[in-house]
Amino acid sequence: MNVGFIGLGIMGKPMVLNLLKNGYEVKAFDLNEQARKEVVEAGGKEANNLLEATNESNVIITMLPNAAIVKQVLLGENGVYESIQEGAVVIDMSSISPVDSQYIAGKFAEKGVAFLDAPVSGGEPKAIDGTMSIMVGGEEDALTKVLPVLKAMGEEVTYVGGSGSGTTTKLANQILVNVTIAAMSEAVVLASKAGIDVEKMYQAIRGGLAGSAVLDAKMPLVLERNFVAGGRIDINLKDLTNVLEAGHAIGVPMPLTSNVVEMFHALKVDGKAADDHGGLVQYYEKLANFKIPVGGKEIE
Hints:
This protein has 14 helices and nine strands. By secondary structure, it is of the alpha/beta class.
């Protein structure tokens, strides 16, 4: 299969590199010229525009920041829709709303093109090592066709239902991840200000019921005070805003999500929009007028 890949950001670039490692021919496009050059250096082909990325590609993958950009790239003027051939498969791996996914799927169906909404979980580390979880909505026959492509980027590929099901599942995932980070932040600020060695606390609880993949991914970064983004605060804020809109549309109140949305807004105002969402601990530190020391304990 020839793959056209659009979006070479934190997640997209390592995903392309894994496709290349697995022997796929990839033409990649991004507005960032340096990112395109890095793909070429790894053995891929550079697309200078959307038309070049789409031509001769029977699989088109998008990994983009938000729904507005996804729709512009796929359906806008000089976008993918204008040049894609009947029988191709479009896979959007961005995190957008199910309403947008269903709309895009309907447009491509008019042209005889299958559309899969296939957002991912795992952040930059799992994008790099190719072990992401991928949740897929759309036509199951189309998934069967492109499953080897997805397997080159993710360890677990799960079909969750019709169009929009993948993006809905990702919204549920984002609730669990970000609310867990908020709870972790609240707990560690309490413990640290009480004089507990947070590293020892982490080791004590990680094997019990409070342990989780989120805890293991984010606690070491908090202890290092390393908030370089694997999953940016502003991107997660966008995702949780989509959660609220989806919940309100079908009559599902979202009290915990609402609280975390406001925390992220506060951090964005404080200039931390580009921090990793593990940096949410800084919100609690500000409330408590206390900073967790590097390593988890003050040096005596």
